[in-house]
Amino acid sequence: MSEQAGTGVLGGDRSGAVGEVTLVGGGPGSDELLTVAGARALERADVVLFDRLAPHGSLTTLAPGALLIDVGKTPGHHPVSQKEIEALIVRHALSGANVVRLKGGDPYVFGRGSEEVLACHAAGVPVTVIPGVTSAIAVPAAAGIPLTHRGMTRLFTVVSGHAPLSDTELEHLAGLGGTIVVLMGIGTLPSITQGLVRFGADARLPVAIIERGFSATQTTTVGTLASIVFDAAAAKVSSPAVLVIGEVVRLAFDGDAEASVLLARAEALADLA
Ligand code: SAH
């Protein structure tokens, strides 16, 4: 954790009144995708606790004068535990500060936002939540992939790949036939793709992995359920990445390359593997 003072002193009401907490969904990484309400909350903040995946490059401008606290988990840094984050939020609010908890994407999509809201309630601290643009939808869109497309699919499911899916979950997902979006799914990619095929999904179903959406190094790797583990290894895919499984991947593009070209490349790679 590192603390970086803006103009120095911690603001807020010093008369003993409790400050308030705003959980802000920062969107998938670009300042442009922060909401107007989120930007306004940052402007008023005395303290900002931010995550690695939240847009934090311009925080000194967006939150002038706020104490900026990095609670992000970066490799090599000792992560701040969820309980410590909750304690920090509550402590600053009880001292009278206006606290913004800036999170990546939407606070309520695998963001532990609800745990932070509950911690505020338990401490008697007023809390509001400003939704954000979730990476589950925006990152595929950045690669040209719509999650629904008339005549192709009318449903999508967003799942966490943080832990392996159970057989029951895999069976239901394979049976649904819609688009499947997996967050935090790089580690469990082999078990998810093989599991879906085991429960009847077509091994030729297209799959896309979009790494570092909205950054200068955004990359899309396309393959099929059968090939994507090889494609991902060949492309040295790493987190953060969003995985999309479904026919809609046929609409993807990467720079000038369209999905058909990406798929042909992926098949050629799989043949070599
Ligand atoms: N609350 C967040 C998700 C938190 S889980 C949201 O709504 O977006 C963290 C996961 O989100 C990452 O492991 C990755 O799967 C995905 N993710 C978030 N930002 C991303 C980005 N810019 N590019 C690719 N994946 C991203």
Automatic annotation (TrEMBL):
Its EC number(s): 2.1.1.107
Keywords of this entry: Methyltransferase, Porphyrin biosynthesis, S-adenosyl-L-methionine, Transferase
Keyword Transferase appears in the UniProt entry: yes
Domain Tetrapyrrole methylase span(s) in chain numbering: 21-228
Pfam family name, one: TP_methylase
Gene3D superfamilies: Cobalt-precorrin-4 Transmethylase, Domain 1, Methyltransferase, Cobalt-precorrin-4 Transmethylase, Domain 2
GO molecular function term, any single one: uroporphyrin-III C-methyltransferase activity
Keyword Hydrolase: no
Any one Gene Ontology BP term: methylation
Record-linked PANTHER family: S-ADENOSYL-L-METHIONINE-DEPENDENT UROPORPHYRINOGEN III METHYLTRANSFERASE, CHLOROPLASTIC, SIROHEME SYNTHASE-RELATED
Name of the featured protein: uroporphyrinogen-III C-methyltransferase
Protein species of origin: Conyzicola nivalis
Upper lineage: Bacteria, Bacillati, Actinomycetota, Actinomycetes, Micrococcales
